[in-house]
Amino acid sequence: MIRLVRAELAKLTTTRLWWGMGLALLLSGVALAALVAFFLTHGSVPGLGEGLEITDTLPALALARMVYTGAAQIGYLLTLVVGVVVIGQELRHRTATTTFLAEPRRGRVVAAKAVALAVAGLAGGSLLVAGALLGGGTVLALGDLPVFPDAGLLLRTLLLQVVALALWALIGLGAGVLIPHQVAALFVAVAAAWIVEPLLAWGLSFLDWGDGLAQYFPSQATLAAMDVYSDIDPRIAAAMGASPEQLPWWGGLLVLAGYAAVMTLAGIWLTRRRDVL
Amino acid sequence: MPVPSENQRAAGGTAVSVRGLTKRFGEVLAVDSLTFEVAPGRITGFLGPNGAGKTTTLRMLLGLIRPTAGEGLIGGRPYAALRQPLHTVGAALEATGFHPGRSGRDHLRVIAATHGVPDRRVDELLELVGLAGAARRRAGGYSMGMRQRLGLAAALLGDPQVLLLDEPANGLDPEGIRWLRGFLRHLADGGTTVLVSSHLLSEVEQTADDVVIIARGQLVRQGPIEELHGPPTVLVRSPQPEELARAVRTAGLEGAPAPDQGPGAFTVEGASLATVGDAARAGGVTVHELRALRTDLERLYFRLTQQQDPVLAQPQPDGEAP
């Protein structure tokens, strides 16, 4: 199994994908965190009238959390894509044959891919967080705001952001197996995460029981795991797109891990059954 | 020429057996109760027109396609039951791809990593198949022949006892084909079981010891390639055709004029050169040519596969049925 994981890691590092993705994660971390920090330090609170600065109403911790997770949504989209590509490439370039000849127990191959992706996701997530600390931290420091308040809680947010990005990669892996055409899989996965899910959550918000359901969606679970909207006035949170009901951080983590587990297991199950043509 | 690492074979080698393999893709019966054996230490040509089911059969044998019925065994075990399978079986299948952005060397290193094969062996094989110069270039820029060589190197990584090659000559230049033939013979002499598929008999005619011919998913013929030739035929030419015909008849042989072999030609079936020569001398006939006629295997192969299915035996575009 260790050899299989090594082989999968080698696959990830022997094409241009890894540094392209690494660079994208780092740069989006820098740019988006800086952008969020800029708007938060220069903006007023929507819906609360003029003259009320965001920095006055938000605790320092909440502000730092928003800044440093500002690139999370781009970040998990990128790791989702990597997850899809890890399977999609094997089918598209027909290397699956070679892969399954070397290890005919295909479930183990998918499991090895999941482990390699988790490692890559953690590494990529760390890059994004490093970028966010750099970009966002600079802007916060320039605005004379605390760069790293409540170190313990903020650290938990950052760590869970890294973990969440890795879990999204596993969701992508499952999507890549479920939709064995790489371009279609990419399209569906990205559209589901960025368009379908928010629209669905918005639609559900008109129903009494809807918000309770929306909090279990992957994006909402991700935000909950990172604790982005806790300690914030619910009206401000709502104005920023938070669903009124939020899971606790561990709940969000568990829900997201559940999605990753289900998708990975579905990938293993399907890969074992399919013919490799 | 460098030689792969020591081929210390267990006595007897590893045989491949296909038993009643059947695969149905929806309405299409791609492979139909196919049964044959591939012996160690011999080169077996696996022949059939495009779409006959060769690739599907190989993929079932390798555990890539789930058979509808039957089984394929390697050394008595299904492929999926092999641990570290590349040490037992090396396969280069048609339509096996390479990531265009990964170098040939990295492609092999990824496979090698699954079996703990050292990079040294990877470089050895790149040298062996003549890819050392292009090893660090992206495989997307490789020619068809280079891809074939890379596929062969991948198949040889684990120094396997069984080699399964699907249309390995496709894209190789004549020199490469010559090299491949010599190399496969060398491996077979060392005890390796070699199965080479092709849609052209002429490609394997010079190398194969045995042939397995299929058409429309069914077995048409299997056995040593000499047996394809059937009973020997003697060609004899004389400026005195009538006297020759009489002499042959007198000797109790079956003969017939063969105008397609030139003027005064006569063929005698089921007789040796000596018998025909003696018959001519006994009849006092002058003989200008006396030789054994080889069966036109290509024509025979065409007939064999066409009888099975007149449509599929026509030249087909490349690519197997699904």
Describe the structure concisely for a colleague.
Helix content of chain A is 76%, strand content 0%. Chain A is built from 13 helices and no strands. Chain B has 10 helices and 13 strands.
How would you characterize this protein structure?
The complex is a heterodimer of chains A (277) and B (322). Chain A has helices at residues 2-13, 17-42, 54-57, 60-68, 72-92, 96-102, 106-142, 151-178, 182-204, 210-214, 218-225, 234-239, 249-273. With 277 residues, chain A is mostly helical. Chain A has one domain (2-273). The mean pLDDT of chain A is 87. Chain B is of the alpha/beta class and 322 residues long. In chain B, 31% of the residues lie in helices and 24% in strands. Chain B has ten helices and 13 strands. In chain B, strands 5-6-7-3-8-9 form a six-stranded mixed β-sheet, with helices on both faces. In chain B, strands 11-12-10-13 form a four-stranded antiparallel β-sheet, covered by helices on one side. Chain B starts with 15 loop residues before the first strand and ends in a 14-residue tail after the last helix. Mean pLDDT of chain B is 84; it is low at 1-11 and 309-322. The interface between A and B is medium-sized, with 26 and 33 residues.
Topology:
The complex is a heterodimer of chains A (about 280) and B (about 325).
Chain A lengths: L1 H12 L3 H26 L11 H4 L2 H9 L3 H21 L3 H7 L3 H37 L8 H28 L3 H23 L5 H5 L3 H8 L8 H6 L9 H25 L4
Helix pairs in contact in A: 1-7, 2-4, 2-5, 2-7, 4-8, 5-7, 5-8, 5-9, 7-8, 7-13, 8-9, 8-13, 11-13
Chain B lengths: L15 E10 L2 E11 L4 E5 L6 H8 L7 E6 L14 E4 L11 H12 L3 H10 L15 H13 L5 E5 L7 H16 L3 E6 L2 H5 L4 E6 L2 E7 H4 L4 E5 L3 H10 L4 E3 L7 E5 L3 H10 L6 E5 L3 H12 L14
Parallel strand pairs in B: 3-7, 3-8, 5-6, 6-7
Antiparallel strand pairs in B: 1-2, 1-4, 8-9, 10-12, 10-13, 11-12
Helix pairs in contact in B: 2-3, 3-4, 8-9
